[in-house]
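Hi R.,

Here's the chain you asked about this morning:
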Amino acid sequence: MSQNAENELNGPVAFVNIFTLKPGKLDEFIALQKVNLGRSVGNVPGWRGSRLHRSIDGNTAIMISTFDSVADHKRVHQTQGFAEHIAKVGPLIESAVPGYYQVVHEVTQA
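And the predicted structure, written out as tokens:
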């Protein structure tokens, strides 16, 4: 079985997206993302949660979302709600670099 097929079965998977925003659009982007994430709670099957980070320099944002599987994440992209959200945030984004990742090691402090 390939690593990708195994990931589909075993999850979880983190979807990381690095956004470069158009000048002066970071705050608006963050506000729209926060509203959309708030609406997602309890309404997105397979979604475990997201963390949204903004750069100190005010040019980029990183969203790390965790899903049970890649298929769960891809299913979100097929919804009307996602299409409506993209219509709002798309014009604010200069570029985006997305990718799927698996946690291979984690250290936390109690």
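Residues 9 and 69 are 7 Å apart (CA to CA).

Let me know if you need anything else.
M.
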